[in-house]
UniProtKB/TrEMBL annotation:
Domain of life: Bacteria
Designated name of the protein: AarF/ABC1/UbiB kinase family protein
Secretion signal span: none
Domain ABC1 atypical kinase-like residue range list: 99-339
PANTHER family, A to Z: COENZYME Q8 (PTHR43851:SF3), PTHR43851
Keywords: ATP-binding, Kinase, Nucleotide-binding, Transferase
Any single Pfam family the record assigns to this protein: ABC1
């Protein structure tokens, strides 16, 4: 990119999105017509598949170019399978979207230097003994450079793109236009809900001081943990647009997925479930952004977790509500589940809603309660998305308002399933969940190691004995 700041013109960006969306819509209409044609030949189906792959390439180009808000959508799409395309081209389709896991094109180091010096109030050489001008990662709202502090400590410096806040505010106006791309490929997806979620969270993600505080809280919890790593934060060098953390030398998700054994992938999957799902029930810190770019694999078998912008600090009552709803699912109690969510104001206490809500809740959380070894299929996320979207359109569910912890956890669960599906991981998942759900002792080696580490520091105070 040039040294100019990222432009935030709503009209320029809207024109680009609208033009691309129109092209995608035309290709998708052609592809669907080819597939519907009576007696469609193999050649026609292959042509339709090529059209859909071109749509995926356009999706990546526009979402990466928008950065910020729209790129968050793209990263989610790269992590989960929404059943957008035929099974035979799904791996290639996901591979195209996976480009978004590595982030966007970087901004020039000159522009990044201006941001760092402006925020820290001193010259770059005063803050760092050395900093690599080539970024090691470029994400949705910022990029990361490796650096060395004057005391010799290796660090990662995450810097917001210059002008990104203005660009994101423009994107907020354009987001529905951008989501036309998604609607064209996946009719029926609730793009309104996606847009609402992004609007609610993006302001928090622009505040790197808040993110640094979130990460520091997690780093304290996991300092010295046997298999999960959260890089420490250099608080003196964190500002609204700059975060400095410990540098982690590790393998990226795609390489680990392609080079590891089944046993290694299964072990990694349990660690991911323990960090993103079991963890919040113990220490009340819920990270809602588990996509592949935030997961790094160390040579010693530990996994490092990054990015704490999409975050929620949970209260005891919120944890107890999550335990109650999951126990109602475990006990096959649709009315009990409805009564709990009705008490929270999420749904009216109408018995007619009990069974359909139960079935949809089970579609999202039921795999956690499977007592038999089960291999996660990434296509489960497609089924979840379709069911959830269909339910929102049914009578009685159109005004459903899930509490924040349920919504963030539901999003997190879907993204975790996406990760486990890409790993083709197999596990007895209830052996992990039963620790916080039923108060049982750990049954796996990782569970026993984690219990020994936490000791009395972070018990599962979830009210499971009630």
């Amino acid at each position: 990119m040039s040294d100019e700041e990222i432009r935030g013109s709503r009209f320029r960006r809207a024109a680009s999105i609208t033009g691309t969306a129109a092209g995608v819509a035309a290709r998708e209409a052609t592809a669907r017509a080819m597939v519907r044609t009576a007696g469609s030949s193999d050649a026609r189906r292959a042509a339709a598949s090529r059209q859909q792959l071109k749509s995926a390439q356009a999706l990546v180009k526009v979402f990466a170019g928008m950065r910020g808000a729209a790129m968050k959508v793209g990263q989610t799409l790269s992590a989960v399978d929404l059943g957008m395309v035929p099974e035979e081209i799904r791996p290639e389709f996901q591979a195209i979207l996976a480009q978004l896991q590595q982030g966007a094109d970087p901004v020039s180091f000159k522009a990044i230097t201006k941001v760092i010096e402006s925020d820290l109030g001193e010259k770059l050489r005063e803050s760092f003994a050395d900093i690599d001008p080539e970024p090691i990662a470029a994400a949705s709202i910022g990029q990361v450079h490796r650096a060395t502090l004057h005391d010799g400590r290796d660090v990662a410096v995450k810097v917001q793109y210059p002008g990104i806040a203005e660009a994101i505010h423009a994107d907020m106006q354009n987001l529905r236009l951008g989501l036309k791309l998604l609607s064209a490929i996946a009719p029926g997806i609730d793009t309104g809900a996606i847009a609402g979620e992004i609007r609610e969270r993006i302001t928090e993600e622009l505040d790197y001081e808040l993110e640094a505080s979130n990460q520091q809280a997690m780093a304290r919890v996991y300092r010295g943990h046997p298999f999960a790593v959260v890089p420490g934060v250099v608080t003196d060098l964190c500002r609204e647009r700059v975060i400095v953390t410990d540098y982690v030398e590790a393998m990226r998700f795609a390489e680990f997925k392609d080079t590891s054994s089944q046993a290694e992938r299964d072990r990694a999957a349990e660690i991911i479930v323990r960090f993103y799902l079991n963890g919040p029930m113990r220490h009340r810190l819920l990270n809602g952004d588990p996509h592949p770019g935030n997961t790094l694999f160390l040579p010693d078998g530990r996994i490092a977790f990054l990015d704490f912008g999409f975050f929620k600090r949970m209260g005891d009552d919120e944890v107890r509500h999550l335990v109650k709803t999951t126990r109602a699912l475990h006990e096959n109690d649709p009315m009990g589940l409805l009564e709990i969510v009705a008490e929270l104001g999420a749904l009216p206490a109408d018995p007619a809603l009990a069974q359909p809500f139960y079935e949809n809740y089970e579609a999202i959380f039921g795999w956690l309660l499977d007592e038999e070894p089960t291999r996660i299929d990434a296509s489960q996320t497609a089924q979840m998305m379709r069911r959830y979207t269909a339910m929102r359109g049914d009578e009685g569910f159109d005004q459903m308002t899930l509490p924040a912890e349920h919504f963030v956890l539901m999003r997190g669960v879907m993204l975790v399933i996406g990760l486990l599906g890409q790993l083709q991981a197999e596990g007895r998942w209830f052996d992990v969940a039963r620790e916080w759900l039923l108060g049982d002792d750990p049954r796996t080696g990782l569970g026993k190691a984690e219990a020994a580490f936490f000791g009395t520091r972070h018990e599962y105070t979830t009210g499971v004995a009630a």
